[in-house]
Design goal:
Layout (H helix, E strand, L loop, with lengths): L5 E4 L3 H13 L8 E4 L1 H4 L7 H6 L4 E5 L5 H17 L10 H19 L28 H8 L2 H8 L6 E8 L2 E9 L3 E3 L38 E7 L8 E5 L4 E5 L1 H11 L7 E7 L5 H9 L7 E2 L4
Parallel strand pairs: 1-2, 2-3, 7-10, 7-11
Antiparallel strand pairs: 3-4, 4-5, 5-6, 8-9
Length: 312
């Protein structure tokens, strides 16, 4: 069986935590393996339990980069001060991109409301009392159009852009109880060693990455171990909703075609690869029940399937 040595993790922090704890137990956080984690987990890295950190040694991941503008710095200082006052016994965590986004939305709306000259709250639900679900009593605000006009103005957009998340990611390497910054990435420059490279900058080399098992050698992708072999992608045929995956068999030409949203996304991802892979879709009649049973067939290499269903 081919050993999958590079694994991409795009999960919520809670699910990713379970994956890494179990991966360590199975010996998959050792030399020869490479784990790449998306911002979905890396943005909350500092909030993970210490046992998860121990299991993530050598992981590389992408974290949304927060601008270091004076506005953001002032926000971070204020938030840190208030957090320490309200939770003195809790270790202070950094303000991530979601915190900045929440502040952005709240402050932008407050700025728009204040600009209309509104000084007192309106009676939004007259007669509703504490019944917050009494939607029938809600009425349209008299200043709604003024707020909308402010939000769509050019000056307001300039205000919002001060807190707008950048299309830039920090590339972090988890080592010990901390993390090392090994570079940046954005859609304009690709890999970078600094967040604002000069126009003539051509540096695409990241800092040294320490992989699982404290190895300095980057693990080899299992795709290069295929030696020209073709993937057989099992597509379950269970008569369910046709929108995700569907199958059409042309009896006249004895040809089977596959379509649906998941097939389209999978094909688009393959088209973006920097190398070519050969594969074929194979109908997999769902006699095995759950997704877990289907994945187990891949483990057993049933009918030599290499991948199971593009939406898994």
């Amino acid at each position: 069986m081919i050993e999958i040595s590079i694994i991409l993790v795009h999960l919520s922090p809670s699910l990713a935590s379970q994956v890494f704890i179990n991966a360590k137990m199975l010996g998959m956080m050792s030399k020869g393996f490479g784990w790449i984690v998306t911002s979905k987990t890396m943005n909350f890295l500092d909030s993970l339990d210490s046992s998860v950190y121990v299991s993530m040694q050598g992981v590389m991941g992408f974290k949304s980069n927060v601008s270091e503008s004076s506005k953001i710095q002032n926000l971070t200082l204020s938030w840190t001060r208030e957090f320490h006052q309200s939770e003195p016994g809790v270790e202070i965590k950094e303000l991530n991109s979601f915190g900045v986004g929440a502040y952005n939305a709240a402050s932008a709306l407050a700025e728009a409301i204040e600009s209309t000259g509104m000084k007192h709250s309106e009676n939004w639900a007259e007669g509703a009392g504490l019944n917050l679900l009494g939607l029938g009593t809600l009425r349209v605000s008299n200043i709604g159009s003024a707020i909308l006009s402010k939000i769509t103005s050019s000056q307001f957009r300039e205000f919002v852009e001060q807190f707008q998340p950048q299309d830039t990611y920090e590339i972090l390497n988890v080592i010990g109880r901390g993390k090392r910054r090994v570079g940046f990435w954005n859609s304009a420059y690709g890999l970078m060693t600094e967040v604002n490279p000069s126009i003539n900058s051509s540096s695409k080399i990241l800092e040294t990455i320490i992989w699982p098992g404290f190895s300095l050698a980057a693990p080899e992708s299992w795709l290069f171990q295929m030696s020209g072999k073709s993937f057989r992608i099992g597509v379950p045929v269970n008569g369910g909703f046709p929108e995700p995956v569907n199958l059409y068999h042309d009896q006249q030409n004895n040809k089977t075609t596959f379509g649906g949203f998941c097939i389209d996304v999978f094909q688009a991802a393959v088209d973006r690869l920097l190398f070519e892979i050969s594969f074929e879709y194979v109908p997999f009649y769902n006699h095995y029940g759950s997704y877990s049973d289907l994945v187990y067939q891949v483990y057993l290499e049933e009918k030599d399937y290499k991948v199971m269903r593009p939406d898994l």
